[in-house]
Amino acid sequence: MLDPQLLRTEPESVAERLAVKRYTLDVSQLRSLDEQRKALQTRLQELQAERNRSAKEVGRRKAAGEDASDLIEQTGGLSGQISAVEDDLEEVRAALDELIHGIPNVPHESVPAGDSDADNEEIRRWGEPTKFEFEAADHVSLGSGLGMMDFELAAKITGSRFVVMSREIARLHRALIQFMLDLHTTEHGYQETYVPYLVNSNSLFGTGQLPKFAEDQFMTSGDPSYFLIPTAEVPVTNIYAQSIVSEEELPIRHVCHTPCFRSEAGSYGKDTRGMIRQHQFEKVELVQLVLPEHSWDALEELTGHAEAVLQRLELPYRVVTLCGGDLGFSAAKTYDLEVWLPGQNRYREISSCSNFESFQARRMQARWRNPSTSKPELLHTLNGSGLAVGRTLVAIMENYQDVNGAIRVPDVLRDYMGGLESISP
Questions:
Q1: Which of 72, 186, 302, 312 has the smallest count of CB within 10 Å of its CB?
Q2: Are both 78 and 130 inside the same structural domain?
Q3: Which domain holds residue 76?
Q4: Is the pTM value of this prediction over 0.90?
Q5: What DSSP state is assigned to residue 112?
Q6: How does pLDDT run across 308-367, given as a tens digit for each residue?
Q7: 277 is catalytic
Q8: Catalytic one among 54, 203, 352, 354?
């Protein structure tokens, strides 16, 4: 959430910055609601002050044995007016909150202009796109040929956009999770964390998924109702909701493996083949909470931690900066890591690493205590996939395939696979 004071004092400046994100801020509506709020607050204070004066005068008259019936009647009338103004003020505040809660984070000044992912800016590449002397198969054909990846069976059990994996492919999927967790905990200094896979609406509001993206979430029925997590970012970051940490505790780094659940409401017809866009998938998520002055260095560091996974797996990739039109609701800046997929002959996103500055922290009131002032101040939050496990599996299958449809196991994963060097049909 943006600073309400900033919206009140510099709405045009905020609107100009949000235009980079292809968001139009209705400054006139914002000002109108805020002016109504201020006018109603002033009127409420005046009426309350008048009621207090009348009440004191009633008390004085009664103590002096004087008639106070006219003032009692007047005070009763004031109570009715106060109640009406309070109702109007509550209505205006609710409308103002709805408007403010729907305003995205402003993009950092380094975010390039653009309308879509076609306008994202490539920063660097690592490795050369894998080439074969035969026509590369995609992971669906490879998994089917191995007899270890079945989308039709998953559709029978549940529906579309699910998969059943078995035997060595299922083990490779599990090996990737363990490898990522070991790398981030032992070499990158993250604390492994286990969290619930169901969260309440306050948690989704805190990280910015609600109220704007309610249709993208899976929700349970019953009372109370819960949401299935779209990413571990939600429960892990919300560990610090309504909390104040000391400077000595910072930076805070968590790594967490969870399944993720997304309805993909806005992606009808996109990536319907295979594991690229599913309703249920696994991720190893990196989350950091840091001092505001350190968050931009932390973004570079966190991105490097995600890149390290791809480098250890020897998977070619590139890093792009998302343009304003492709930037997420809560993010001030995002780097996407895109891995090369020979079966698609293109780079595909495998991790998004974002700095949210104080946007999420303000929504969830995640703060640190500044020792120089002894006052709580907002933290900066960051997260990134380290990595999306299913897409990493896809990348390994397609980059490590041979002409016979076998998959070579990357060197760094062989200990996790019991020494297995290749998965054969």
A1: 186
A2: no
A3: 26-101
A4: yes
A5: P
A6: 999 999 999 999 999 999 999 999 999 999 999 999 999 999 999 999 999 999 999 999
A7: yes
A8: 352
